[in-house]
Amino acid sequence: MSEIKTVVLGLGNTLLADDGVGVHAVRVLQSNGQKPEGVEFLDAGTLSFTLAEAVEAAGGLLILDAANLNKAAGTVVLFEGEAMDDFVANNKKKSVHEVSLFDLLAVARLCDELPARRALIGVQPQRIEWSDTMTDPVRQAIPTVCDTALDLIKRWQA
């Protein structure tokens, strides 16, 4: 049996301005030298069913992504457990992703491999259009996303 670990997926398209916030945040986490033991940070880009194996093998799953929260740009919100499931199921965003997060979680659920610990850290985008530059409010939210992720992981590992 494989080691139980936490998988952190940074989602988004870095060519669509603020949509890439999850990817940018996971890259910061990968490079900051504070990687907790038993955690794998993955730049998941625009998603794919190839991630199903990593999700199903995880003891904990943390998603970092742009999300329509109906709040000010750069607002960061943590959805954990069933709150994440409800948010993902009820807020299927139009996406350039090959598959949606809902689809990926549905595959894990059908295989009875959905991680018991799961969460989404969503960031309200200001602009989703062709650009490789994030807006200031979203770029400034990245440290909050990273701190929230590390705090959650620490709590999960306690």
Main attributes of the structure:
single chain; 158 residues; five-stranded mixed beta sheet; 5 helices; 37% helix; globular
List the helices and strands and how they pair.
Layout: E1 6-11, H1 21-31, E2 39-45, H2 52-57, E3 60-66, E4 76-80, H3 82-90, H4 101-110, E5 117-123, H5 136-157
Parallel strand pairs: 1-2, 1-3, 3-5
Antiparallel strand pairs: 4-5
Structure notes:
- 37% of the residues lie in helices and 20% in strands.
- With 158 residues, the chain is of the alpha/beta class.
- It has a single domain, classed as Rossmann fold.
- Strand 1, helix 1 (21-31) and strand 2 form a beta-alpha-beta unit.
- Helix 1 crosses helix 5.
- It is globular, with a radius of gyration of 14 Å.
- It starts with 5 loop residues before the first strand and ends with a helix.
- Residues 94-99 have low confidence and may be disordered.
- Low-confidence segments, given as residue ranges, are 94-99
DSSP E strands, number: 5
Ends: how far apart? 22 Å
Number of domains: 1
- Strand adjacency order, main sheet: 2-1-3-5-4
User: Percent helix among the residues?
Assistant: 25-40%
CATH architecture: 3-Layer(aba) Sandwich
Fill in the CATH topology: Rossmann fold
Name of the CATH homologous superfamily: HybD-like
